[in-house]
Amino acid sequence: MLELKGLTFAYGAVKAVNQVDLFVEKGSIHGLIGPNGAGKSTCIELISGNRKPTAGMIVYDGQDITAKSISWRRHAGISRSFQRISVFDGLTVADQLELAARAVGESDLDTIVAELDLGNTLTEHCEAVSYGEQRRVDIALALLGEPPLVLLDEPAAGLSRDESLQLADHLAHLAEERGTTVLIVEHHLEVVFRICSRLSVLEQGSVIADGVPEEVRREPRVMEAYLGRAA
Ligand SMILES: Nc1ncnc2c1ncn2[C@@H]1O[C@H](COP(=O)(O)OP(=O)(O)OP(=O)(O)O)[C@@H](O)[C@H]1O
């Protein structure tokens, strides 16, 4: 579904992403984890097309998309969350979701609203709903139109443990129902271990471990770099 080959990106002298190889299997929820500054968000920006790599290749559905624009990638079905839920002031959640659904030809908005428990927020203005609800609207927007690949950068940031786990379950359920492949950057390790079928661990721009969660959890280098400290 998605393959990164030798992907590299530098901000000036800082090599944020260094020769990253990564394979995201179709239909999986793949976690990209690692300590602060490891290069996770930069990877998401490279895949979505917001930044261009200095070296390496991005292959999506068998096609080299490294030089493709953001809008090309969006049309090809690569969607991402934005952590902002309305581009127009004064819209209600329903307005925002319906507008976006129409734009991408989503026919099953009701299921997304129900699964993400957004029914009670529909008549509220986007800026008036709670932070947790905003996070869920953001995910709803990313899932509209049944994109084959959804990139989520810290969807549970700022949520309580219970809210995070609930969000993870809703997300996993929707992804499975709709056959969506998800690449998720997330600091809440409980969320990651609950829903991800594969994990890649970045440290200082390089992949230091890759595999099923139980394998990755046992890697001494991962424990040292990240899990050990968090556990
Ligand atoms: N706009 C920028 N300009 C310069 N350096 C940047 C910029 N954005 C990120 N960096 C640097 O690139 C490296 C990777 O950052 P990135 O945000 O991709 O890591 P991350 O793993 O997502 O971190 P976090 O978990 O803290 O969000 C870090 O050293 C960071 O300081």
TrEMBL record:
Gene Ontology molecular function:
ATP binding; ATP hydrolysis activity
* Name of the protein this chain belongs to: ATP-binding cassette domain-containing protein
Any one GO CC term of this protein is: plasma membrane
Source species, domain of life = Bacteria
Segments traversing the membrane? none
- Name the PROSITE patterns on file: ABC_TRANSPORTER_1, ABC_TRANSPORTER_2
**Keyword Signal attributed:** no
The UniProt record lists the keyword Zinc-finger: no
Outline the extent of the ABC transporter domain: 2-229
Enumerate the UniProt keywords alphabetically: ATP-binding, Nucleotide-binding, Transport
The record's section on SUPFAM superfamilies has: P-loop containing nucleoside triphosphate hydrolases
